[in-house]
User: Fold these one by one.
Assistant:
Number 1:
Amino acid sequence: MNRIIEFENITKEFKILNRREGLKGSIKDLVSKNYSVIRAVNDISLSIGKGEIVGYLGPNGAGKSTTIKMMTGVLEPTSGTIAVNGKIPYKNRCQNARNIGVVFGQRTQLWWALPMIESLKILKDIYQVSDEAYKSQLALYESIINVKPLYNKTVREMSLGQRTLCDILAAFLHNPSVIFLDEPTIGLDVSMKSKIRHLIKELNARQKTTVILTTHDIGDVDALCERIIIIDKGSMIYDDTAGNLKKYFGAYRTLKLKIKGEYILSDIIQALELRFLNQTSMVVRTSEEWISILSKEDEAPIMEILMFMQGFILINDIKIEEINTEDIIKKIYEGNI
Amino acid sequence: MMKQGFRYYLKIYGKILVQNIKSKMSYRADFFISLIGIIFVNLSGFITFWIIFKNVPSLLNWSYYEMLFLYGFSLIALTPVQCFFDNNWNLLTYVFSGDFIKYCFKPLNLFFYYISEIFDIKGIGQLVVGITVLSYSWTNLGLDFSLIILVKLIIALVSASLFMISITNFAAASSFYILNSAYFVMMLSNKFKDYAKYPITIFGGALRIIFTFIIPIAFMAYYPSLAFLSNKEATFLTYFTPVYGITFFYLSYKFWMFGAMKYNGTGS
Ligand SMILES: Nc1ncnc2c1ncn2[C@@H]1O[C@H](COP(=O)(O)OP(=O)(O)OP(=O)(O)O)[C@@H](O)[C@H]1O
Ligand SMILES: [Mg+2]
């Protein structure tokens, strides 16, 4: 029984009332049968084992949160079979909740007006955690991060980052078999992000907790995930290790150029398009003073691009980089694998 | 399945309550100012009442002190809804923003978890005013008092309090069903409690039936009070108050829970 989560052909549809305009329309809406159906999750099958950290990725509206809501038993799938810890979550919401932990970014589940430590004590009672287990869990927390100063702060007084940190600690308190983190690092600064990644990684390593994480921050993926699942428009488009993802895209390189003087990006893109007619996967972007050109080596070799560019602009500095996960995922979203 | 019993919930409620009270006490100034505030609100309500009825010797056979009795009784009966069920007022916002979903992740009864989250200590001020007014009218009416009467009074007050709690439950839970009009329903339901302090007989036929059976505010003071006022006849409905209160509360709870189950977050 090492499978924590099993999805078989899960589909979730939402029925949405087509609203009409104006007062007359809203009166008609009261008795309307004019629904349209949104398929938020489309025929997904997956299986997640004990101790895995899975990055669940996809563009906005892909169906990530919907999937997690089904795993937590809040939503019932329209069709398909689902099991979490061998049980059907939506049929046993309460019982399922005892074995899982959930953090929905920016929505704290701690008591707003209470000091953090009191919230933890209430949770201890709710999940019926034994005294020893509770003590050793706090000791574990204290050994990973400096949490003691937060114990007597109320959630109200905490910064967003501190609150997220505490929410994660609270979610792990009853040592659940699986933790769902929906965008845990959203809105946090760099150092808080790395603290939270460290915390998640440590807790996963020490307690063999399965972690399912949705994020738009590629840093989370690079730091944490061994396995990546990508969905788009409700359908799964990738499910493999993070390593394979990079191997697959190994032929890609990014050429970064710092250019002397003014330039117009669209002109550069146009020139490149004319020169490398056969390539389909080139991406040109700018960040600060760098222009970066992502290309596939066998379609448009970096050296040729460089020589071509030198022909009409003055280059100050260059860098050549391996493709990063962000670009890979972007390419997958865009569908040109 | 590990069915969680009454004791489990009681223990958790107790813990949350104690912590909530502690935290309210720690903002001492805030606490006293809001306490004084609510006492003043109630006093001004009382003064209005006094100005209107001081010069009216009796209203449909209700003397000034009897009216005062109803007034005090209703203030006490409205305390629990204010103290313990205040989070109902936020339900619309939670449902609207999709944040309600956070209550679904704990292994707790949804209604319990949601309602237990907030304790509003300000209701105590209303209780103080209510007890004062009730005792004052009680003495002036020359009513008997004994331990048995006290027990009866407590049963009557608790039963009466269930009605406003239930009405608030219904109104708040309407957010699950008719999101766009729920605010209006909440506002309206809150208005009803103002009628609770009048004898139901001042209302004409249709309203009287509505206020007795459909929106049963007549049970928040009028019917139960008949059991204590010496020159009033208690009716069947007086003794029916506890049963009806429990039934009505149960229905409102089911309505709330059904809505919560039906509800499934907004897009994010
Ligand atoms: N309760 C609902 N009623 C109707 N439609 C919904 C509901 N919840 C989600 N949807 C729709 O389902 C689709 C998937 O939404 P979901 O929240 O799962 O996306 P997501 O991948 O989490 O996106 P994001 O990255 O923006 O959080 C969207 O088109 C959304 O509008
Ligand atoms: Mg989402």
Number 2:
Amino acid sequence: MKNIRNFCIIAHIDHGKSTLADRLLEHTKTISERDMQAQVLDDMDLEREKGITIKSHAIQMNYSQNGQQYVFNLIDTPGHVDFSYEVSRALAACEGALLLVDAAQGIQAQTISNLYLALENDLEIIPVINKIDMDGAMIPEVQDQIIELIGCKVEDILLASGKTGIGIEEILKAIVERIPAPKGDPEAPLQALIFDSVFNSFRGIIAYYRIYNGTIKKGEKIKFINTDQEYFADEVGILKLGLQPEKEVKTGDVGYIITGIKNAKEVKVGDTITSMANPSKEAIKGFEEVKPMVFAGIFPVNTEDFEELRDCMEKLQLNDASLTFELETSQALGFGFRCGFLGMLHMEIIQERLEREFNQTVITTVPNVSFIAHTTRQETITVNNPSEMPDPSRLERIEEPFIKAQIITKPDYIGNIMTLCLGKRGLLINQSYLTPTRVELIFEMPLTEIVFDFYDKLKSQTRGYASFDYSPIGRRDSDIVKMDILLNGDKVDALSALIHRSRAQDFGRKLCEKLKELLPRQQFMIAIQAAIGAKILARETISAMRKDVTAKCYGGDISRKRKLLEKQKEGKKRMRQIGNVEVPQEAFLAVLKLDE
Amino acid sequence: MAGIYLHIPFCKQACYYCNFHFSTSLAQRPQLIQQMLQEMVLQKDYLGNQPVSSIYFGGGTPSLLPQEDLRQLLDQLYTLFNINTDAEITLEANPDDLSPQKLQELRTAGINRLSIGIQSFHEEDLRWMHRAHNSEQALQCILDAKAAGFKNLTIDLIYGGPTLTDEGWARNVQQAIGLGITHLSCYALTVEPGTALDHFIRKKKMPAVDADKAARHFEQLMNRTAQAGYEHYEISNFALPGWHSRHNSSYWQGQPYLGLGPSAHSFNGHSRQWNLASNAGYIKSLEQGIIPFEREELTPVMMLNEYIMTTLRTSAGCVLDTVAGRFGEDSRDQLLQAAHPFLQKKWMVLKNNALVLTPEGRLFADGIASDLFFS
Ligand SMILES: Nc1nc2c(ncn2[C@@H]2O[C@H](COP(=O)(O)OP(=O)(O)OP(=O)(O)O)[C@@H](O)[C@H]2O)c(=O)[nH]1
Ligand code: SF4
Ligand SMILES: [Mg+2]
């Protein structure tokens, strides 16, 4: 055990975690040259396509130094704010963390928030300035920033480049020397904390754990303490590029277990595994429940596919414990789920994964945050869905979730950021200069104002020179109204939105305009209206269709045209009939595209 | 019966709406013709010695070719393929190329049908489209072609454009009918991705296409040509009795055809293939003796969908017995069921055991076809 080192790599998004992990794996010959590719741990199609890490990924390496053999369990983590939950679970399996800082960008918002997460878990931090090969590398300046932030000595900060491989040997040495070996009692009853799980369609559920005490053996009877369920350990092992079965996995190590469980609900990330032969009564402290930030409905395109979708959602939830959902019914869309997401990227990814990995075509509805409504009869109602909003006549007041936003930028952009945030109902709380060229702004803002397009706007207003992090600060009273959309007089519940009254007029107008663009013409006229209660805020009409494209067709056009029409057919499959109007899938998300 | 298509990838200037493959530089013309001759040798068995009933020079602008090139290409075709003595031999021509002398040369070379890219008889439209000819040439070349003895004449006209009024379109149609032109191909202006027109519309330098106007023009066209005795035998094609285009009909009837030259498409009954759309790339590859092409094998479903798509455009319609014979009785029944709403709406009728679009249904031909597609 004294030769085990468990650590993770944490940083702001894109500061080079996955690339640095590549070099460590290469250097320790964990991955053969044949299997090597850039960001090899990002093995989901979506990760490769988007060039970002979405899920934490654990892998074991062997390393020898001064004649001693070491086992390293590395966990690469995502940098995007939406996935900070992945980071906090990875931290629970580690004694140390490599904190990377991009040499050209310096400390950014998630550098700070991930560092604090690691400190809360009492991890040994090894600060590394990464990407020092870059022309814009500002090593002394970034060194100062790091010293300021964590109070270390300049010698403690390593310099590296995941791209060229500079500094890799020093990092490996530092891992041995600075990160403590795991503690724990091999003789004590088994306690293994489940920090992640995935679903495999052949093998069922695979749970990843870190062993705090005892040993887990293949074939023995085990128990999940919190759910109080017993299973056989059909297979246990360690994590290489794939799964590597072992007879047993010992104290301090990171490994996996397969028990043949197929039902996603039985495995809870954060649960503790113990052995029946010598059971531990106590569970290790698990994780705080993740709190979803954004809620939206997900519905099958064909109502008959609801059960299948439920099954897929449960499997997906296993891979992504941060996804929450419950049943929802909509007049327009039938049965579906009200889902909670960590943010908009998370929502987009869930939808894409459902489509790619599970072959489900779904309709996602207008997202909203979670409000609390107080009625005149002193009821308190959580409103995660516009349909849950009580009638205005019964409403006393509504509370809206607020956040504290931390933005780090160059002084040149303060003006733009102020305009942006004040326009989003923000309040400036603090402004402080971290260095003469870096300023930190703190705002209090409604969550709903930042979940949609805030981050994109921030980036464009600052040419990318701003990083952003936020944390919830509770709810405040707010003048929130429910805005409905009517198509030919029929209310479309799936298009209703909860919105601040001051925004309603403008929002309603834009939404009607956008819907006009997105709804295909039909054989009759369509009236699109936005309304609060009985009051119409905006109206657009789509005149009846006269023609669809009937273009020429030569010999050379036949296959092209066939493909075009096949695609059209696919598109039509995704339409929903509402009253007598056919509404395409994109229309339900029109609200997100109002500025395009 | 089979057809042969030759793609002549050169134009004087680029029309704004055009997405065909062509180059405005003629520098590579000699090499290109050489390699097309070579491609004919390599493809001589593609049609399996079936009789060829039509040859079509398309483009680009084949009327840019000197007589000698045409002669060489045709000679080689006659040597290598089984060409009917009464084959329809069409050449696409632009008005600005058709001097009386040029017309004479074309006849001598063996061209017996001309397809002239008139597009409009109005100056304003031609400028807006960035065509190389003017309104005077548009009219004059037709008179000259008739004088040169071309009886089998077709012209292209485009409707729905922003500069074309309803009245202007009526005048174009009337002009064509008045000249006694036996065949008309009339297209709604469509914005193809990547064209200059597409770019201008996106940049808001030109107005978006007005679909209502295009529909009005199409209806006007159907009414007027019907009164004048033309048969609306395919969505975009109108002919006086006996003057249907043999070559284009073969596309819609699923006959095999061989395409030669860059970007040309071929079809042999079960696969489609298309040559590389690059003059330089085409020449270079054929110099190595290799035809650069991509091929797509058609599955039964793809064939059925193509059958539905192409036949629905024709006045003969989609023949149910043919569907049953080629794709099985179930397919026929399923198709008939899917067609039910359209039959009810009177967008379609059952005539001689075939699904045929009504004039109203023709406005929605593509949408109907895609609804009837199998998957
Ligand atoms: N010049 C240079 N570029 C690097 C280096 N390390 C990574 N990059 C580039 O930086 C980008 C982000 O690298 P990743 O390794 O995916 O970053 P990450 O921190 O894992 O990103 P997330 O997981 O999405 O937070 C990629 O384009 C890399 O090629 C480096 O040392 N030098
Ligand atoms: S002449 Fe014909 S092929 Fe050439 S650019 Fe104009 S439309 Fe296109
Ligand atoms: Mg990564």
